[in-house]
Design goal:
Blueprint lengths: L10 H11 L4 E5 L2 E5 L10 E3 L8 H14 L6 E3 L7 H7 L2 E3 L3 E7 L9 E4 L4 H7 L7 H9 L8 E8 L2 E11 L2 E9 L8 H15 L4 E7 L3 H9 L3 E11 L3
Length: 253
């Protein structure tokens, strides 16, 4: 599929795919808001997201109720702000002392960069070698690690944990999850000993090939707005920004 014939997914479709690709142990709804809780690790599995941008007459009463639900789980109420927010959500959160985190981009494009790559294995879950590469990324925590280990048994859609070896050593990772035509890419990491060798591009190409075999035609991913090298790579692969999101976290003061 070329960029000329590719149909971009909507924000609603991408948000749904995001929730399916990153499972949470506990979920629930309060009006248009989806509440998700796990071990307090990754943001997506431990946050509140609106699924409907329509006005919400109960918004101000709803927020403290959601906060109480997370307090019972021993977790902070972390709101994920997207184009699906109801009007006024940001104002209500800021009035309650919430602080916005940095922006992240949701990017998408056709799976035109799919290619087979030597040395790449598609695992059914994150083994110790896969986790050892991820551990070199500074955003990993013990809670995130355990959430990743428990995720495969919780997922209902096809997924693979891709591992690229160089000289027998684990060198690069990615996770790919397919929902219909959409293939989400996560945990793209290269061990410091193997950086600047094009391994990220190789493992993404192999992940895209796996996704194509499972019926996908569209790649999507999420990346920090400040990660210029990664954004540049993804643009070279034909992905473009669809929208941005950010987390609102309770203030400390």
């Amino acid at each position: 599929m070329s960029a000329d014939t590719w149909t971009p997914p909507t924000a609603a479709q991408l948000e749904q795919a995001s929730h399916n690709a990153v499972p949470a142990a506990r979920t629930g709804f309060d009006g248009p808001f989806l509440l998700r809780a796990f071990l307090g690790g990754t943001g997506r599995a431990n946050a509140i997201s609106s699924l409907d941008p329509a006005p919400d007459a109960e918004l101000e009463a709803r927020i403290p109720r959601i906060e109480a639900a997370y307090a019972r789980q021993g977790l902070p109420a972390r709101f994920r702000s997207t184009p699906l927010d109801p009007p006024g959500l940001t104002d209500v959160l800021e009035a309650r002392g919430y602080v916005a985190d940095k922006d992240s981009l949701v990017m998408a494009g056709p799976l035109s960069f799919a290619a087979q790559a030597e040395g790449v294995a598609a695992l059914t879950g994150p083994d110790e070698d896969w986790l050892s590469v991820i551990a070199t990324a500074d955003y990993q925590t013990p809670a995130r690690r355990e959430e990743k280990q428990r995720a495969p048994a919780m997922m209902l859609h096809p997924a693979a944990w891709m591992l690229l070896r160089v000289g027998g050593r684990p060198a690069a990772t990615a996770q790919v999850a397919v929902e219909g035509r959409l293939a989400g890419f996560f945990d793209v990491a290269v061990h410091p000993d193997f950086r600047r060798q094009g391994l990220a591009r190789r493992i993404l190409a192999a992940s895209a090939a796996w996704a194509r075999q499972h019926g996908a035609d569209t790649a999507w991913l999420q990346v920090s707005a400040g990660n210029t090298p990664a954004i540049t790579l993804y643009q070279m692969l034909g992905l473009r920004e669809m929208y941005r999101y950010r987390y609102f976290l309770p203030g400390r003061g």
